[in-house]
Amino acid sequence: MGPVSTAAGPPKLIVSGLVKRFATKDGDTLALDGIDLEVAAGGFVSLVGTSGCGKSTLLNIVAGLDQPTAGTVTVDGDLVVGPGPDRGVVFQAYSLFPWRTVAENIAFGLECLKLRRAERNRRVAEMLSVVGLSEFAGRLPRELSGGMRQRVAIARALVGEPDVLLLDEPFGALDLQTRQSLHEFLRKVWLRTGATVLMVTHDVGEAVYLSERVVVLTRSPGTVSEIIDVPFGRTRGPAVRREQRFMAIEDEIDDLLRARRAS
Amino acid sequence: MTVPVDSVPAVDAAEPEAPAPPVAVAAPPGHRGRPLGTLGRIRGTLPLRWRLILGAVGMAGVIVLWIVAARATAGADTGVRVPTPAATWDALRELWSSGTLSADLAASGERMLYGYGISVLIGVVVGIAMGAFPAAEGTLEAPIGFLRYIPASALTPIMVLWLGVDEAPKITLIVVGTVFFNILMVADVARAVPRELIDAAATLGASRRRTVARVVIPHSLPGIVDVTRINLAAAWLMLVVAELLASDEGLAVRIVRSGRFLHFDTMFAVLVVFGVIGVVSDLALRGLRWLVAPWDR
Lengths: 263, 297
What we know:
Mean pLDDT of chain B: 89
CATH class of the domain at 101-296 in chain B: Mainly Alpha
CATH topology of the domain at 101-296 in chain B: MetI-like fold
Strand order of the largest sheet of chain A: 6-7-8-3-9-10
Distance between the termini of chain B: 45 Å
Low-confidence stretches of chain A: 1-7
Low-confidence stretches of chain B: none
Number of helices of chain B: 10
Helix content of chain B: 55-70%
Radius of gyration of chain A: 18 Å
Shape of chain A: globular
Number of strands of chain B: 0
Number of helices of chain A: 7
Oligomer: heterodimer
Largest sheet of chain A: 6 strands, mixed
Radius of gyration of chain B: 29 Å
Largest interface: A-B, 28 and 22 residues
Order of helices and strands of chain A: EEEHEEEHHHEHEHEEH
Helix content of chain A: 25-40%
Number of strands of chain A: 10
Strand content of chain A: 25-35%
Structural class of chain A: alpha/beta
Distance between the termini of chain A: 27 Å
Structural class of chain B: mainly alpha
CATH superfamily of the domain at 101-296 in chain B: MetI-like
């Protein structure tokens, strides 16, 4: 029925038979049509697709920010009915609270969990050192570069130790150099925290480099066109990007996306 | 406008058909583009020095006009009469030393404090509710849209019949004259909170109440201060309408009383006081905005 899960562990996140229909003035639009998807515990799965394929809609439904027309999302067997701290989300940009310092931004979720101040401060300090921003704890977001802001956003999403980390084109607004350094950063954080990650991106190289598995979505209606397992280990480094196999996978996905656009 | 690449840039556009100079002669460098300038640049930033100079010129212009008007009407017993700035200044000092001005300021200030204070309080609570919750917006938009087009000054007779001629109708008039603008403008401010911040709070586990308290209100704070600053002018307008009802003390009362005795200098002195209060409160609220929102300076 659903796709086979990876060897990394039992499925943590299961998306099953997901349909999303939008009412538009030209009648209903089918944005997602029967999406099945699994992410293993501690796994890293990316969704790639051309713009308008509904990949962000899919992520929003998993986050609980949007309701599916049909189908279900479960985390550890529990049905997702709305947003919650068990699923941390990193948005594309500008989602930090501009009036809060870096440390206060990271603490927001811990405040919601009603943690005591001492415990909160300890976990914020720990997370600040994980993301390498300890010396910027007292800065406001506007005093940081775009890359640093996204590191804060990732720290804020992870500090509450969510079951799943959802990334919605997290590096799309950044320049190439910053993006590549954040790739290394995200890989480090992922391996260190053991988080289960589902990422949406339109950058094929990024998806292949970071993920264990890439799900290619087609547009109108959005369906899963192909699932590609990435054969590199969890401890891969930037050098893998120059390997023949890496480029072959990139080309394969590019061809899939282009073929779908042409048809 | 196509000019051959090797031709010399035109030094003087008015010069008709300048003969092409020999190729060997080195031409002086020309100019490309139109300089943007400092003072004339559209939406440019004015240097502080120029800001002060131009501000002084503007104020001096008003005073010069005033002096000219005073000269022109000097000696007239009836009709248009404008007191000189000096006479106005003397009247102002007289108002101050007799204690009249401080009593008027206290009376008007108290009415403004209660009236506008209540208006801002209601405006913030209802405005945030409307901006944050579509159900509150749906319920209140139609009635408020209707009520705000009723000129508050037209309610004066009703207020007198209901509440007498004491302080209550005056304070009520200030509230009624400003509260709907405060509500609708605060609602706009609250609606401007980015969707992503609300979503981020929800995914971090914030309840609705916490999202309003920790996201909607902090983000709206500078905007709310701006709204109170803008609508303060309407509150002064309503204060004058209210004081014309019946009062012993108050800035507007002073103008009416002085008018009966044709004391133009005193009337102008009170107008100057109104202007000064306006500028001071404007600056104070700008300062408050700067203080409450260091992130949005």
